[in-house]
Amino acid sequence: MNPVRAGIVEKPDDYKFSSYNAKTGKKKLKWLDHDPAYMALGKTDDMRQTEYQRWFQESIPKAEWEVIREAVKKNWAFGNNLFKEEMEKALERRFEVKKAGRKPKI
Predict the structure, then answer these.
(1) pTM of the entire structure?
(2) pLDDT digits over 44-87, tens only?
(3) Alpha carbon distance 75, 103 (integer Å)
(4) Are 36 and 28 spatial neighbours (Cβ–Cβ below 8 Å)?
(5) In whole angstroms, what is the distance from residue 54 CA to residue 96 CA?
(6) Which of these, 50, 16, 52, 17, lies nearest to 34 by C-alpha position?
(7) CA 56 to chain centre
(8) How many CA within 13 A on the CB side of residue 81?
(9) Inter-residue contact 11 to 4 (CB < 8 Å)
(10) Of 13, 37, 53, 94, which alpha carbon lies 20 to 30 A from 105's?
(11) What is the DSSP string of 38-91?
């Protein structure tokens, strides 16, 4: 959906550099390797294509896109609690987003 949100195209299937058309059955790309997540969407091509279209439109709510954009702008990591815990272990420090600057004097 990035090309749509950026105003490059009106619909995801208008963007020629996307696998969207292949994953929705509108175009055949023999070289495209479907990932396990896509393959798990259904037992048949038709089932996967239908489920992919539904998932594609509903997967990330608009409000969540705003949170993602804010994290990208501020160079923050974005993820769930499991991700946070794994990052804390890997970095050996607390992983949290704090307000910039010093604490106010009381």
Answers:
(1) 0.51
(2) 999 999 999 888 777 677 788 788 888 778 777 777 888 888 88
(3) 21
(4) no
(5) 33
(6) 52
(7) 10
(8) 0
(9) yes
(10) 94
(11) HHTT-SSHHHHHHHHHHHHHHSS-HHHHHHHHHHHHTT-----HHHHHHHHHHH
Contact 8, 1 (CB under 8 A): no
Separation of alpha carbons 4 and 14, rounded Å: 9
Fill in the amino acid letter for 3.
P
> Do 83 and 77 form a contact (C-beta atoms < 8 A)?
yes
List phi, psi (to 5°) of 73.
-60, -40
Which region holds residue 72: left if phi is over 0, alpha if psi is between -120 and 50, else beta?
Answer: alpha
Burial tier of 48 (Cβ tally within 10 Å: 0-12, 13-18, 19+): buried
Please write the tens of the pLDDT for every residue from 31-48: 888 889 989 999 999 999
